[in-house]
Amino acid sequence: MATEDELNQIATTVENQIRDEYEKQLDDLRNQIVDLRQSMQVNVSPHVDGENNLDILVNSHMRDITRETRPQMSSAGLEVNNKHFRDLSNHELHQVKKMYEKDHTKKSRTILDENLGDIMDKCINFLTYSFDGYSKKYYEAEMMEDVYDNDKSTYEMIKVHLIAMVMFIKDDSNILYIGILLVFLSMILYLVNITTS
């Protein structure tokens, strides 16, 4: 059996080893934090006139927003936004700026960017599936007006059909393909008129 002195000596040895291991891990953690801070360091001075990096980043971001040539809501709105931006971290501010740039630099795709084969294919698909799309919009219009098949007057029926047509035309690029089909129809009518006269 070990004596009390030997047990105390073993306990102090274990405590010292645990303390040394703890200090070693703490030093490693501090070094990693310092390395992380250095790698994420923004290319601005740490303190300029009492402002920290976050204030400088927010102010530069707000300057970028105020340089916009598009109409803004008001200058008071920028100060309100600035108050909220101060609660964001550096990473979050960069993400906001990246989303802002990404949204405004994206060019919208028009029909002129597509080739004729794709346009004709979409026109044929539009003709094929237009009745299903109109039926869905008709049911949505019935739900909007809260009238159904069994209790509709003529006025309500016309109203529901008009609402469904407007919703169908607004959906996706349906109006574009309706226009293309109307142009083809007018050309066919014109050719029929020429041949019959």
Question: What does this protein look like?
Answer:
By secondary structure, the protein is mostly helical. It folds into 3 domains: about 5-40; about 55-105, no CATH class; about 110-190, no CATH class. About 75% of the residues lie in helices and about 0% in strands. The N and C termini lie far apart (about 125 Å). Residues about 40-50 and about 75-80 have low confidence and may be disordered.
Which characteristics define this entry?
mainly alpha; 3 domains; 75% helix; 197 residues; elongated
Helix content: over 70%
Number of separate helices: 7
Alpha carbon gyration radius: 35 Å
The H-and-E topology, N to C, reads as HHHHHHH
Q: On the 0-100 scale, what is the average pLDDT?
A: 78
> What percent strand?
under 5%
Number of domains: 3
Specify the structural class.
Answer: mainly alpha
Structural shape: elongated
User: Which ranges are low-confidence, i.e. pLDDT below 50, for 5 or more consecutive residues?
Assistant: 42-51, 75-80
Distance between the termini: 125 Å
Biggest β-sheet strands, sense, barrel: none
Topology, number of strands: 0
